[in-house]
Every structure is written in structure tokens, then in C-alpha cells.
Amino acid sequence: SPTNATDGGIDTCCKDTQTELAERVAAIDVAVGPDGSDQNGEGSTEEYDTVFSDNVKDIQRNGVNSDVGMNEFLPSQQSEDARWRHGPKRPLTRPVLSSRKLSLQERSSGGCLTSSNAPGYGPYATGPSPRIMRRPTIESNRVSISDSEDCVQLNQYKLQSEIGKGSYGVVKLAYNENDDKYYAMKVLSKKKLLKQYGFPRRPPPRGSKASSGEQPKPMAPLDRVYQEIAILKKLDHVNIVKLIEVLDDPAEDNLYMVTLPLPNRPVMEVPSEQPFSEEQARLYFRDIVLGIEYLHYQKIIHRDIKPSNLLLGDDGHIKIADFGVSNQFEGNDAQLSSTAGTPAFMAPEAISDTGKSFSGKALDVWAMGITLYCFVYGKCPFIDEYILGLHNRIKNKPVEFPEEAQISEELKELILRMLDKNPETRITVPEIKVNWM
């Protein structure tokens, strides 16, 4: 049958088999006309068919095999996005009949084909994978807390050991009795967040001139948390941390954010004495590019891409985390004017005193370039003890490549194009995908 066809060629020793195959094709629910259109008049050529073959089993990351099996059905025209993501692979099982749409029977057998006319799909697809129905974030406004001998019960969750800690709260391992699974629960104190914002700010130095344009008022920490929740609720991607549930009882001080459990380990600590090989860096960087491309499609600028915000999952894939300073935008790109993020990863235009707005997408690309440099060298390309010195290096100093680590010329070129100090000529995410990748 088509779902079990291989690359070994068509058996021509039996004409009866070919006749039977032709009869089956004629009986398929979506017939293909001579002009390549189906019964509804819609074109369905191979060129525009897209498959999301994320689950190829022979990929290894950090010695971890993907635990998802090979798709039972793969069309002969594999999508550019899927080929790019996984690189050269062994020949895939291909159907004999690929210039038509999947029948309902084939769709239920694990095949997944989407038309390029559908929003969010194509050679550079950035929409959520159609293989899995999106699971909406649960929002709970009532929180029931009870203490037991061994743990604290919070609704259906049993809070266990602490796995992380931040300025405004902690992260705990939480066991969900309803589905018998473990999750990570971030516990934030709303009082601490409000108190932090309520501290008086230092007045400007005497004699300083006010800026000609009124600076936007910084967002309160608690508002940042709610903005992060609003952003995470929109996202559903293998390379993005998934928000499962939010528990926010107005009568309680704490706000709880439940995410899928992840190892409390960033992909790299910077500086590092053990940078990645070029091939390992390539694997991780692919995940970052796909995650950022998805964010930009969802009209979100991350603004704080760096190794410590890239968590390594048990499957060996990168999960982008920490959307506390992210921005949502309308149109094709965000036009930003405020400074946010980590100084060593900020782009020259973000620390400029010209007062001009700048591209949000280009900002993320710069931070991705700094991150990629860290992957192969274990340190940032621009380092200084003082913030003003750091800003000067970022704006004026060229990128230097240490001799102790040998990397390909293609990788050097990509880093240089990502760290182009002019955001208008800086490489874009779609261009990155056809470069060193």
C-alpha cells in the first residue's frame, strides 16, 4: 500500500498488481484531475505540500535518542523546513502516490500534510505543529491550600522539593494527582513584587537636562509577570517553555505558574571552560532559531536571549524560557525605544543615545549571535568590567575570534552577519536558516 512503499522501486513483474493499484487510486476519496487539482478545484502539487517530521528517530542530542517513533506516512516531497531542521538523514519511506491529498484513512494513520495556503505554514513554517491539538492554559481563580505531614497540598498539586529560586519567589516540583504527572510550579509573592516597584527612585543628577521626548514609564514587576503569563498563554511549541496552568486567587498573596517539568539547568553557564563543538552548537542553535522564528510569527520579541534562558530538556532539545521583558507587537515588526535585557547581550542600537526606535526582530538576532559565539568560545565577544566600557565595545569594537577554538569559515561568517552593528543590514532569521545551518 502507499503507506508502506519503499525506495526499492516498483515491482513490474506482475501487471495484475499494477491494475489493482490503479483501481484503488480511482476509488480514493480525493481524486486528482489531469491539471493537478482535486475534486474541489484546489491544487495539491508536491511543491506546496508540507510535512512536519519532527519525530525522526535517529537524531541524538547529548546522547539522548528521541523517544518518538518515525511517522508511519511521509510524503515523497519532504518540506524544506523539516529537511533543514534535521539535516541529512537516511532515506525516508515514501509513498508511491504523492501528488494528491491524503485520504481520511491515511490522515488517521499518522500522516500530516498541510497546504501552503494555510496561515503559518510553508518553507519557513512558524505556526504550531498541526500534529497535536493545542492544549489551552488553565486559569484558576480559587486556591485551596492544606498542609499534610510530608507536603503542602495546593488544589490538585502536591508541592515537593524546591528546584529553583529567584528574587520574587521559588520554583517547586509539583505532583498533579489528576493526571499522575510532575510539573514545575513557580511561586511568586505579589506583595514582594509590588513592594519592589514602590521603592523611591533616585532623582536625576543636579543640572542634568531632561530628554526632549518623554521616556515610557517602566512596567511594574507585577505587571511584567502578568504580561509574561499573557504571552506564554499564546505559545505552544517544542522549543518554548509550556505554561500549563495559572493559579491566581485574589484572596491569596502568592501567584502560581505551572509549567512542564524541565531540568533546572541552562544549556551553558557563561563563562565556560568547556564550550561546545561546532556540531553540538549547530544542534542547539537550530532549536533556538526555530523557537525565535515561532515567537516572531506570534508577534512576540523575546529581548533576553542568552544561554541561561535556554533550558535543556530531557529530550536534548532547547526550551526558550523567561519572557519577563518580552514585547508583543502589531504589523511586521516591533519598533522599540526602551532598553531591556542583559547588558552583554544588548545590541548597539538598544544602547544608543540617539533616541531613535529600532527593530525588535533585529534585536533578537543580535542576542542569538552573542549566544552562538558563547556556544563555541565559552565567553561573550564583548567584555568589560564597567558598563560604559562594555557599551563602548559593543558599539565600536569589531568581533574577534580567538585562535584556541577552530571553527569553520561558514560559522564565522554567520556570527559576523548576526553581529552586524547596523540593524538594517543584519541577517534575518529566514536567512539564518539557509546559512551555516
Automatic annotation (TrEMBL):
SMART domains: S_TKc. Residues 107-133, 197-219 are annotated as: Disordered. It holds the Pfam family Pkinase. Residues 107-118 have a biased composition (Polar residues). The keyword Nucleus applies. Signal peptide: none annotated. GO terms for cellular component: cytoplasm; nucleoplasm. ATP binds at K186. The keyword Heme does not apply. It is found in: Cytoplasm; Nucleus. Its main location: cytoplasm. GO terms for biological process: intracellular signal transduction. Residues 157-437 form the Protein kinase domain. Keywords: ATP-binding, Calmodulin-binding, Cytoplasm, Kinase, Nucleotide-binding, Nucleus, Phosphoprotein, Serine/threonine-protein kinase, Transferase. GO terms for molecular function: ATP binding; calcium/calmodulin-dependent protein kinase activity; calmodulin binding. It catalyses: L-threonyl-[protein] + ATP = O-phospho-L-threonyl-[protein] + ADP + H(+); L-seryl-[protein] + ATP = O-phospho-L-seryl-[protein] + ADP + H(+). It comes from the Eukaryota. Belongs to the protein kinase superfamily. This is KKCC1 kinase.
